[in-house]
Write a structure and sequence with these properties.
Elements: H1 2-120, E1 124-128, H2 141-153, E2 163-168, E3 179-183, H3 186-199, E4 202-204, E5 207-213, H4 217-224, H5 227-235
Antiparallel strand pairs: 1-3, 1-5, 2-3, 4-5
C-alpha cells in the first residue's frame, strides 16, 4: 500500500513538471512572437521615418532650387534696373550739360548786349528831378540844358558842350521823368559829371537835381543790389568808385 501511493505521487509530480514545461515553452513562444511583432513595428516606423525624412529632404532641395531661381531673377531685375537708371542718369546729365551750355551762351550774348548798350550810352548823362515843362520858353530841351548846366556848374562860354540831343525818358514811373542828354564827346560829358558830383547836385525850381551816368536797365538793377553796401561805406567815410561799365 505505501509503495503504490508513492508511485502515484511521483507520477503526479512528473505530470505537473511536464505541464510547467509546456507552459514555459508556450510563454517563451508567445514572448518570441511579441518580440518579433515589436521588431517588425519598429522596423516599419523606422522605414516610415526614413521615407518622411527623404521626402523632407527632397522638398527642401526643391524649395532651395526655387529660392535660388527667385534670387537669380531678382538679381537680374536689379541689374536691369541699375542699367536703366545709369542710362537715364547719363541722358539727364547730357541734357543738363546741353542746357547749361545754352544758358551760358545766352548769358554771354546778354552780357555782350549790355556792354554794347553801355557803350552807346557812354556819352550820355541823366538829370533827375527837373520838373517837366521847365524847358518851356527855350528853343529846345537841348538849349535849356545847355543854359542850365552853364549856370549851375559854372561852365565858361568858351567850352562848347556840344549837346547833340536831349529828351525826357520814357518809362512807367510818374513824372518828373529824367532828362537824357547826349554829348558829342565823352570828355565833355565827364567834365560836366565831375562838376555836378563836386557840387552834389543843384537846385532848380525848389527841387534838387542829380546828375548821373545813363546806365542801362540791367546795370541799374545790379547797382541797386549793393545800395546797402554803398550806404555803409558812406557812413564809415570809406571812399569807393563805381566806374561806368
Amino acid at each position: 500500500m505505501p509503495k503504490s501511493k508513492s508511485r502515484s505521487t511521483l507520477l503526479s509530480r512528473k505530470s505537473m513538471l511536464r505541464e510547467e514545461e509546456t507552459n514555459e515553452e508556450g510563454m517563451a513562444s508567445l514572448s518570441d512572437s511579441e518580440a518579433s511583432l515589436a521588431a517588425n513595428d519598429s522596423a516599419n516606423e523606422t522605414a516610415n521615418l526614413q521615407t518622411i525624412l527623404q521626402e523632407l529632404r527632397e522638398s527642401c532641395r526643391e524649395s532651395g532650387d526655387g529660392f535660388r531661381e527667385v534670387k537669380g531673377e531678382i538679381k537680374n531685375v536689379n541689374r536691369r534696373l541699375d542699367e536703366a537708371e545709369t542710362r537715364i542718369l547719363e541722358a539727364e546729365n547730357q541734357q543738363l550739360e546741353e542746357v547749361v551750355m545754352k544758358l551760358s551762351k545766352v548769358q554771354d550774348e546778354f552780357e555782350k548786349l549790355v556792354e554794347l548798350e553801355g557803350r552807346s550810352r557812354r556819352d550820355n548823362l541823366r538829370l533827375h528831378g527837373i520838373v517837366e515843362g521847365s524847358e518851356d520858353g527855350s528853343p529846345s530841351i537841348s538849349a535849356f540844358i545847355d543854359n542850365l548846366l552853364r549856370d549851375k556848374l559854372d561852365i565858361p562860354k568858351s567850352l562848347d558842350l556840344n549837346i547833340e540831343r536831349a529828351h525826357h525818358s520814357l518809362g512807367p514811373r510818374a513824372p518828373p521823368h529824367s532828362i537824357i542828354v547826349k554829348f558829342g564827346t565823352s570828355k565833355v560829358k565827364d567834365e560836366i559829371l565831375k562838376r555836378a558830383w563836386q557840387k552834389k547836385g543843384f537846385m532848380v525850381a525848389g527841387r534838387k537835381v542829380i546828375v548821373d551816368h545813363d546806365y542801362a536797365p540791367d546795370v541799374l538793377k545790379r547797382r541797386r543790389e549793393y545800395i546797402e553796401v554803398k550806404r555803409v561805406l558812406k557812413e564809415k567815410k570809406i571812399k569807393f568808385q563805381t566806374p561806368f561799365p
